[in-house]
Amino acid sequence: MDLTIVGCSGSFAGPDSPASSYLVRSEHEGRTWSIVLDLGNGALGHLQRHVDPLTVDAVLVSHLHVDHCIDLCGLYVMLKYVPGGSGREGLPAYGPEGTGDHLVRAYGNEEIEDVPGVFDFRTFTDREPVVVGPFTITPVRVEHPIEAYGFRVEADGRVLVYTGDTDLCDALTPLMTGADLVLADAAFVDGRDEVRGIHLSGSRAAEAAVRAGGVQRLMLTHLPAWNDPEQCRAQAAAVWPGEVELAKPGATYTV
């Protein structure tokens, strides 16, 4: 199972990276299966560097903040209007309650009727797995101001965890336990961002991974452009016993 960081800037697209989006691929039954975790602002353009979006098998949206979902509007246009009539219908799009309605409003025409035909919208149920080819994806409700999920992605005997946007909460333990790689929100900086219930800091991400047990690798993501990545890494390293990795836009990692 391979993970490509399409975008990892937190809260808004930065000068060096789109907002949140992650491409996960695995070989199965003679072909490459691809899923996209989140599609924030700016991500659709960079996604095309790594995969033809018309071939993606499913999109999974952690929550409905702009920096995680808004480029679904562009993907709708691509899927529907690609020249030559080679687009597709019914792309599975998983998300919180109301994802389809949210997309229609964001597109700017509340009477548009064919968005649900281009996308096959499916609503998450907390801790109820969904299967896409070789992937089993378990959405776990986490702590954020709106309905939000982390994803536990299993394939090829490996486990990738993406926390989405969350603060420290009990749900992170079953989400992270035994993961080969945890891709963790670290938007907040200790000593600067004191509000709770929104994001992890590097230290809180590390605390959650240590508490869960069995985590092999910790990678920080969702860092806003105003953060110093090395400060976030240092705060995590004060808690995490191994190497703290930073997500790099455009990089591909084997899980």
UniProtKB/TrEMBL annotation:
Keyword annotations from UniProtKB, A to Z: Hydrolase
One Gene Ontology term of the molecular function aspect: 3'-tRNA processing endoribonuclease activity
CDD domains: RNaseZ_short-form-like_MBL-fold
Regions crossing the membrane: none
Keyword Hydrolase applies: yes
Name of one Pfam family that matches: Lactamase_B_2
InterPro entries named among the record's database cross-references: Metallo-B-lactamas (IPR001279), RibonucZ/Hydroxyglut_hydro (IPR036866)
Keyword GTP-binding: no
Domain Metallo-beta-lactamase span(s) in chain numbering: 18-199
Protein name: Metal-dependent hydrolase, beta-lactamase superfamily III
Organism: Intrasporangium calvum (strain ATCC 23552 / DSM 43043 / JCM 3097 / NBRC 12989 / NCIMB 10167 / NRRL B-3866 / 7 KIP)
